[in-house]
Amino acid sequence: MNSSPAASPARCMQYKMTVFFKKYKWTILYGAIIFFFLFYFTPRQSKYYLDRDIKQFKAIYLIPTLIWIFGFLAFGLLVFWSIKTKSAKQSITAFLSTIFTFGFIIFFFKDIFLGIALFANRQTSKEKITQTYESYFMSDSDYSKNNFLPYDPLTKGIISDPKLINELYHPGLKQNDTVILTMNKGLFGVMFSSHQFDDKY
Predict the structure, then answer these.
(1) Mean pLDDT, rounded, of the chain
(2) Residues 104/144, Cβ–Cβ less than 8 Å
(3) What does pTM read for this prediction?
């Protein structure tokens, strides 16, 4: 007995979808994993850190470390290919291709590596660190949170990070009052909070 005309397009579409997912299942899986890390995992880890600490860790430690790690891997592969092929041309070609690939990985997936590093950093708390700030309010303004900015005596700079503003401000603050922030020193030496910061303006 033939299927009804209405059922035929539905079955055809179901068949096409099945074929599509079978063909591209690994691509879809990789895409889903990358999406998870970029848009959920890493932003969630960042909520435990002040923005300036993340930028400093990323620029001074993470990126150079990734370059060194992938550089050693590339050099090791160059030695391996040189011994195996005994051809300088083939080894150098493969080495340059590897360097390009590793550079692509570092550039496009650095935020994923950052999220993993920030997560690992929070798994161990070495010690408590107390950071002292002074309250600064814009001139000719009231003492509301909208006009509040923390002043760092060590760097002699005013910080506009909304995470720090939301964490330190409380009603009753006056100009030049001392405010204290307690942080944890993590596995990689990066300061993190035991709770998520509020990053809303």
Answers:
(1) 88
(2) no
(3) 0.82
